[in-house]
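Readers of this paper often ask what the protein records in our data store actually look like. Such a record has a labelled line for the sequence and another for the backbone structure tokens. Nothing more is needed to write down the fold, since each code stands for a local backbone conformation. The record that follows is passed on verbatim for readers who wish to inspect the format.
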Amino acid sequence: MRLVIVSNRLPFTVSFNEGTPQFKHSAGGLTTGLWSYLNRNASNGSERTDYLWLGWPGTNVPPENEELVRTRAIKEFKCSPVFLPEECMDRFYLGFCNKTVWPLFHYFSTLARYDEDYWQEYQNVNRIFDEAIAKVLQPDDVLWIHDYHLMLLPKLVRERFPEIPIGFFLHIPFPSWEIFRMLPRPWREGIIEGLLGSSLIGFHTHDYVRYFLTSVLRTSGYEHHLGSLALRDRVVKVDTFPMGVEFDRFAEAAAAKEIEPQVTELREKFAGNKIIFSVDRLDYTKGLINRLRGYELFLKNNPQWHGKVVFVVSVAPSRIGVDSYQAMKLELEQTVGEIVGEFGNVHWTPLVYQLRNLSFEQIIPLYRACDVALITPLRDGMNLVAKEFVASRPDQTGVLVLSEMAGAAKEMGEALIVNPYHLEDFAKVLEQALTMPVEEQIRRNRLMQDRLRRYNVVRWADDFVQVLLSTQKNEAARRARLLAGKAYAGMVQQYRSATDRMILLDYDGTLVPLAAEPRLARPDAEIMDTVTALASDPANHLTIVSGRGRQFLEESFGKLPISLIAEHGTWLRKRGEDWRLVQTMSADWKESVRPILQLYVDRLPGALLEEKEFSLAWHYRRADPEQGWLRAKELVDDLAGFTRNIDVQVFEGNKVVEIRNSGINKGSTAVKLLEEQNPDFILGIGDDWTDEDLFRALPPDAFSVRVGVETTSARYYLGNTMAVRRILRELSESPREKSNEVQLVK
């Protein structure tokens, strides 16, 4: 297995010195973490991970240098650069990525720009990456795509390579539906469809998973079951994978004797003061201004701390080409000046501010020397700085103050959690941090260190890859049950040689696609021609087994020489005979139950009540999906108590709750036909839970087929109604060797 990593940036940046390319390692958490995972020696004596990394090299490479850069990247880094024109990056990276997705996904919706040119370029760059992947991907590769720059890419790759395992991980927050829906409809639909090309989609926290699944439901209509989305032909798993840090690297560096002089120098420089340390990129999501204002309020409320505390603020330049960052830099510098001017004196400076990048060797002494780490973003996907600080405390002292808006807060509950928007809370928590007893500091940090040591960045990456491989095994098992290839050829052969065939076909979701309302799902000319052709073969006994009422089935198929089963087995009309009840039953219960269903129709816009002779169905396919789901649960609970002493059953189906008499189902009625006929070929096809009774009732050698990818008792799968129609059409055109019967189910 080879792991192919795809991200916007490669783990290095290319620059040119007198025409010669220079390669410099990137310092970001994603690149350093993945680099550690890819180059580690695996446990149990196995070989290190074979990999290839695709991404942009960080600069515009002249065409005449592309081959040289590509050759060196492959040889020295096992990386394959994706070259992008500079003007393309302006609209893609500085445009859609950082002026649309970044602010919106971090809940800064007023800063988001909705420029159609940006969206077009975003699609274009994702296609360029898709073409680059197509050139290097091998049959046994596992693909792992990273972050918000490439959210359309999974679908593009899936269209070229239908069976390859594709993982996607989003390193920033996924917003709530109310924020996500601010994107124009074609954009948000494109992003959701793009991500659903994946086999596995990972997020840092459970909240992001929930928000994503809600957006999928409202955008594409797919409901999840325990984080799994059953698409038409695949299952996509969505799960939580909180990214870790290289714990041992930070812990060992912090404990090294070589840094002791630097730690001592820092503490002597600020002798007599408690040190608060903060390090972040220059980004409005990091809450730098709020952090300074919170510290300012702390100084106002606690004059006893004047001359006894210093706040060291280190800010790394970031995205200097984006206007909002320039404005924030000016505001930041002005705020620093105000605080120093108001509280400082010739003997004491309350705040030390520096705008520069800190190397690993520079930041470790600061982690060690400080008494409090102040990590308070307004919104952050994870925030690895908080984890780095805790890993860098060999004596387990120090206090972490962490924003509740950071993904890391979900794991690091022992930190002092603060609301970065509430300055009074900020000031109180700072006082608590500065006065926390050493024993309490050690207790909290020991718990966090144990957790971070176990779930480090290698464990994070390995967990994701292992789950991805597991989903691929499950998908391979499903593909093995597809009615295709040898299985399909074998079925056709048996069909041709059989002398007495029975074909049982569901209607809604099998012969015709599901519709918003039952009345809209009418049989079209194509399916009528196919059914007519199958029924014309004297060897076929064809039965439609449906949940529909007998009036609909009679109007649609009554003139054909086929059998019909209505209301999930309640009514049976054999070929050439009249309708009859399968067993004696009463519909008196409907008078009591109908008002309850009508109440829920009135309470849910878009819901409707369908009444049949011996059943009632409450449909909510056209309703708000989340509200419909909740109302359905409430309705089932209400009906459970009300119908306890009535001989009826309550069933939850696909966007429907149905009540019908007990003891009747598709399987029990189909068995009556089987016993009378004793066919030598049986084909049964259905798409939902009501058809499972039929599948279980069929003999083991029957060709039972579930439409879709839900767990089933059927032997085989088909992807959708189009696949069903294609197979039925091909069977109807097969050379007739002998005669038989066909049957339709639903």
